[in-house]
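Dear Dr. K.,

Following up on our conversation at the group meeting, I've run the structure prediction for Glutamate--cysteine ligase from Phyllobacterium ifriqiyense. I'm pasting the input sequence below exactly as I used it, so you can double-check it against your construct before we proceed with anything downstream. Let me know if the numbering doesn't match what you have in your notebook.
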Amino acid sequence: MARDTTDETRIANTEELAAHLAEGSKPESAWRIGTEHEKFPFYTEHNSPVPYDGPRGIRAILEGMQSKLGWEPIIDEGNIIGLVEPTGQGAISLEPGGQFELSGAPLLSIHQTCRESNAHLAQVREIAEPLGIRFLGLGGSPKWTLAETPRMPKSRYNIMSNYMPKVGKDGLNMMYRTCTIQVNLDFSSETDMRRKMQVSVKLQSIATALFAMSPFTEGKPNGLLSWRSEIWRDTDNNRSGVLPFIFNENFGFADYVEWALDVPMYFVMRHGRYHDCTHVTFRQFMNGALKDSIPESTPNMGDWANHLSTLFPEVRLKRFLEMRGADGGPWRRICALPAFWVGLLYDAEALNAAEAMTRDWSYEEVQALRDEVPAKGLQAKLRNRSVHEIARDVLAISKLGLRNRAMLNSEGFDETHYLSSLEEVVARGTTSAEQMLSQYNTVWGSSVEPAFLEYAY
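The predicted structure tokens came back this morning:
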């Protein structure tokens, strides 16, 4: 998230919190696609991490991007930590370990998403390459220890870094050593939100397997295919994972609000300053728990929006839905992730088919699958079917949805070809992580260094 929200509208009751979510509803004609992707910057001479400061640091990249794009800088205690397009159509931000993120503009088609990603990567290369910096497209940092990984000067990350070890063993790994690709999608109503949320939660592990690309840690195989996904199993279970109440047939905005109210907060921002609020839930905040510890202690809608951004379930609900199951990866995957979910969720025939396929999947089954996939990938099973078999069917539904959308580019091609890298995974029967492990054991000579060549932007 590039910039934390400021909205001083006071909150009177919890009904207003549900209404805040419901206000995200849009007619189908206004549905858009917002794609986010992260990548690890590294120095090419030694494949070493890039610190924030210095003439060849992250700050220098951001300042170069600001000069090139003319975007508005985001400043935190005197440090540039991101850029925002002046009309709100996209942003560049930093993750805790220096991971460089583009939060894309809300776009109509995957063609536009791919052009946006390609333009961003070209722009950032133009600034970074003269500094001897490139970017790695993987789901997990394959080489650097946590101690070797730099820390970005962003106030909310200081609060999170102090809090994470108290609630799970992998929170700092999540913050500093993982990258993801996400897509943000719209809904038209509470019913439409429910259907899309339920289908996408059930199928999130299928996406995790298809996008698995984090098999190395600190220079060696880690025994997993998606280390990034495994990390989320013990980061902070108060705010992450598969949420059981989403499976209820009448699940709605108010249910998500009730859950979110009882999750501990990270911070409250007042006059540009971050106040550590990890000792209270949002419900306690609303009941006056911070009245003696922060200025202007009445909760406002900016506080609520910021709190929602610090929740990390498999699919996150804000005024749109965020698909959170995929590892970071190479350029083709940046286009494939939104194509996969748009095909499933933005076409009525495809959504009906995906809903029919998953209708009787229970919370317990989905949770068990989610626990298996990081290690087993396509070989994990739900009932008597492998993820490999399920993924083939799901991709067929996604392809149907993209074909039905009939969004053509200037050459007359629809959006289905963006699924080709995922179709290759299914045709091969092995994840990209397994392909990397095979290379590691053969042509890479038991070294992860070649990954910095093969998966660099």
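Two things stood out to me. The first helix runs from residue 14 to 22. The CA atoms of residues 23 and 226 lie 35 Å apart.

Best regards,
J.T.
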